[in-house]
Amino acid sequence: MLRALRQRDQALGWLCVLVAAVLLACVPPPSTPRLPTQETSPPVRPTSSASAVPSATSLPATVPAAHRFAVAAESPSAAATAMQVLERGGSAVDAAIAGMLVAGVAQPVSSGLGGGGFALCWSAKHQRVSFLDFRETAPGGIRPKHYEARPLADRSRGKWVGVPGEVAGIEALHHRWGVLPLGELFRPAAELARQGFAVSRHMHRTLRWKRSWVERSPVYAAIFAPLGKLSAHGDQATNPALAKTLERLASEGPRAFYDGAIGRDVVATARAAGSRIVLRDLKDYQVLERAPLVVSWGEHQIYTAPPPSAGGLMVAETLTMHGQDELTATGYGSGAYLHLLAETFRGAVADRIRAIGDPAFIKADVAALTSPERMRARRAKISLDATRSAESFGLNESGTSQIVTVDEAGNVAVVTSSVNSMFGARLVTGGGFVLNDQLAAFTSKRLEQQYRAGRQPNAARAGARPVSSMAPTIVVRSASPVLALGGSGGTRIPASVTQALLARLAFGRTAQQCVSDLRIQAPAAGGLRIEAEADAALLADLRRRGEVIENRLPDYSAVQLVTIGARDGARLLEAASDPRKGGVAVVH
User: Fold this and answer.
1) Cα distances (Å, whole numbers) of residue 26 to 174, 354, 537
2) In this structure, is residue 121 part of a structural domain?
């Protein structure tokens, strides 16, 4: 049944791509400020390792002769818009910007102007991978004691609101790699918000889950519960207030968000619910460039997210711990393979709690954490016939959106944006967008003591960026990108991205198989989550290895993935969108 629903969602998504083309209007480009730089990555160099790892460029025989560009996104409207931008000569980053803005309109449960995120980009001209951090920051006036009592009452949810970084991130991305005028990239989202968008199946699910809040919210009730009835899948919805906000950003530029009426609206909305944010926090916000985390695996170099994300840490630890021969010997999708990954993931989760925080406050030695010696010692403790106990703790992330784009010049953008929980802090501004609750990702003192994290790496601090699970990833071989992927789904992201990555690099699975195959999660609270499609024999095998199975809860993490290869001198692209959220992938 679940497989049938996924296939139906995918078919509907393709239909949306055919009919959801959005007109783009031209405006003069705004001025672009300098991007503050923290660390930069070195140019990519070819590796000389003679490994048996298969090339990520091998593609199915049915792929057409040549491709120009590709998009994979979990919002059909976002995919359609991003593809149109590429067809107009926009860069991969232009397409990602327009797509993420549209995703914030059509699926505000996951992302939007009130959130933040990370971007990993490959420059074909400079043969370089760059990482931009536009994660939310804690206001300067926060009181750490407010982050010990959880959950918060609705009247105090403003305390979780971080200074939004998405609009600043868009500005910084465009300044570095944009081609089309920035204002032009805001127009499709504004038109969609004003003219109407179809409620996706995933959006309808989340509206049902948050029905009581939606129906109490004056702004969202008017959008998603007109006449007192919750919008159904396929219904049209409009957001006139958000359309006005996007039009203002298109004409006045992103500074209108941080030093204008939009920013004052953000501050007033958050403070009315207990936040200590002030306009100075918005004016002082900066996007940071960081050196990506890099792992060599056979002939491939894998570039992924560094702290304050812990998502890349799981990717790096898994690749460092296991070679291709060990993984293939277990058999793809077997009980032994899934159990081995689960044990690996549990170690990475523990390292997240004990070591990772905002680099401005905590200098985590990621190289030491992921060193071959340390990973060999940890691997020696893993048994294929027994499961180690996991300490219980809670991390709550679920509202995230992912887009992957490749342009005609060979540039690649992998952008993950988020408001943290579903609908963030469940605070809607007068401008029609929800505010994030990213400060809930700070770790409580009780939890850090439980994990013996004596220095409290992810404690609430003024100006700090909470640890994230996002894991945008680009794989390079012989100084050229061959794979780009990222995921949504909060704390499920690192395991989902890692499994899709290994499916391609170690087992040569097609792009669609990589994102669609059965997945596991090793949740922080212990046990093993596996999708309901798992057969009885596999479940029995895992239980014999000591795994405590939960296979009734749906997994709505979603991976977007593009492979880049060549045949007879022509570039070949294979794009895939995870059917779990009804996304769409398009190659032209």
Assistant:
1) 16, 49, 58
2) yes
